Sequence to fold (230 residues):
Amino acid sequence: MEHQPGRSEYKKVWSALSTTEDQAKLHVIGVTDEAAFQETGEETLRFLQNTVGIGKEDVVLEIGCGVGRVGKIVAPLCRKWIGCDVASNMLSLTAQRLKGLPNVELVEISGYNLSGVVDASVDVVYSTVVFMHLESWDRYNYISDAFRVLRPKGRIYVDNINLCTDGGWKVFETHRAFSPANRPPHMTQNSTPQEIETYLKRAGFSDVLIRTDDDWIRASGIKPEFFANS
Ligand SMILES: C[S@@+](CC[C@H](N)C(=O)[O-])C[C@H]1O[C@@H](n2cnc3c(N)ncnc32)[C@H](O)[C@@H]1O
Fold:
């Protein structure tokens, strides 16, 4: 069997999953049809608006932006949209999709942090459909580095599939069925609400809200105006 990269070799894993637009779209959200694909982006926008909100003066940063499914909808609503991803193929597809939008910046990141993004320069950080592909340490690494790049009173949104609901458990069982040797490195790993809440609080966020209305955890927090190192 061909040697597979390890789960935390994110650059290798996700570059190989995004060699064509259709393949990338399938791995991003499971659909290639453009109208259906765009509808999923509108749905994510609704979650963002109901949690952190997107304002026209905001600098907004997405961790793991994929092909710009959400960025295409968010960028016209804010001052600047920064799309960060570990895979250069994904960023090229985002550049194509968002062509013509003047307020877009794309950053290829290491896969472990937001190095290269200036401290206290961003109003909203969000990451959607990404945490299930990360090791838990890297989930926290991103939340902790988001705290660094956010301005005081900046907002954060992250999500993952909930281990603790029946639907979330079904996802867990589907993946448990893979034999250990055949587990794909990008395979979904759920979170518990407590895990995400712990990371947000440990990183220093206040007003942490964990929503568990369906089989997802949708979490938000605010960087306090004054904190230990300020
Ligand atoms: C399922 S896709 C979701 C893309 C986008 N957030 C969306 O919802 O349309 C996961 C994305 O995360 C990126 N990714 C995976 N591991 C990453 C990491 N360690 N750091 C940054 N991006 C990562 C992948 O390249 C891919 O673009």
Q: What stands out?
A: The pocket of S-adenosylmethionine is lined by residues 10, 14, 27-29, 63-66, 69-70, 85-87, 90, 109, 111, 128-130, 133-134, 138 (CB under 6 Å).
